[in-house]
Amino acid sequence: MKKSLIGLLVLALALGMAVIGCPSNEGDDGGGNGDSGHKQTGAAVSMPTLNSKNSNSITVNAAVFTSGNPGNQTIEYGRNTANNAPASWQDGITFTGLNADTTYYIFARSKENTTHNAGQPSAGLSVTTDPEFVPDYNIGDTGPGGGIIFYVADGQADRPLGFTVEGYTGTTGSFASYTAHYLEAAPEDSGTAQWGANGILIPGVTTFTSSSHADYNKIGNGRKDTLTIAAYLTGAYLETGIAAQIASAATFGSQNDWFMPSSGELNLLYQQRNLAGIGITSGWFWSSSQYNANYAWGQNFDSGFRGSNNSKNYGLNVRAVRAF
Are residue 244 and residue 307 in the same domain, yes or no? Predict the structure, then answer.
């Protein structure tokens, strides 16, 4: 009798320990049950917000966790043309290969991992892609300023769909940043001139000392840099007849937004130098990009060589361009 009673007590104790040791199905955010592997429920995330878009891509800002304990979770993103959760997801925040003039819904959720199930999708962000861009001008056409179109950002290979022209907030000629699709070269040179401010590092101007620098081939910064240079020289040093001043004062075709091209923009002009109407066959030309206090970047149109050892007091050729 005593042995049977002792056996029953041992069995009851063992069952109790088994119950206590059994893992709970509750997630660490208290939001529901895990799967058969006892994973916890993925934490909730915010709805994405729009960063940028064009006719064939959408980029959102990264979503954030809004409730629960995210632990070691990450966030993934999906899109759909209907306002319901998509079938596939991705880690990145940029969606490419989209159709023009189409509404997409962008979702976010916590990504499944070894300890958590995928979370519930966020509310969908509705974004309509831009209409397809159809160029009004092609390379070699005459532009609004009477010059020649030498670059078209039409989304073809190596030509992104549009580019941002950096804004300028100086006292004269201020303008907000805008998206442009074309670069137009003035119909003629504006003579030769010094770059100016020899021995002075002008603040706010694109400056780099290596051809491997990200700004070496940058486009969209020439107009801002030209006005920055011109204003600095006029206000601080009373210099006149300087390359940036000449370029920004040009009025070809009654257009008043001409500027000295950046290093990247000047190289694009070099690549199209033989177009009818441009006809630059030789000579050194200034860019608006600065190397250091004593030198600025220029390009030799005989060879294509892009030099950084051009003293700012050298007289090089000036060809104005505009972006629109």
Answer: yes
